[in-house]
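Per your request, structure below.
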């Protein structure tokens, strides 16, 4: 016999966790901006205090990726080694 499912009210207001407003002190300025942007655009109630370490990892990875992409665009996919040979860019 199947149970009748209860309807969940989708209008319930989920409180924002204010501890996520404070960025970790050791983040760079651009990483802190990425943190604030992520908090700003995330749906209310999605991120909890337990998510702060994952958010930190994501913010740092996004920052490193952005920096490497800019350097790749500037220097190209290959660079010359000290011996003069073409090698893959370390930013890949």
């Amino acid at each position: 016999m199947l149970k009748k499912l209860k309807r969940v009210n989708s209008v319930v207001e989920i409180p924002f966790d204010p501890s996520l407003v404070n960025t970790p002190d050791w983040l760079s300025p651009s990483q802190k901006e990425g943190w604030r942007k992520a908090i700003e655009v995330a749906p209310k109630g999605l991120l909890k205090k337990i998510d702060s370490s994952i958010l930190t990892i994501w913010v740092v990875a996004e920052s490193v990726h952005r920096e490497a992409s800019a350097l790749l665009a500037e220097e190209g996919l290959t660079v010359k080694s000290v011996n003069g040979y073409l090698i893959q860019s370390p930013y890949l």
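The longest helix spans residues 52-75.

Regards,
D.
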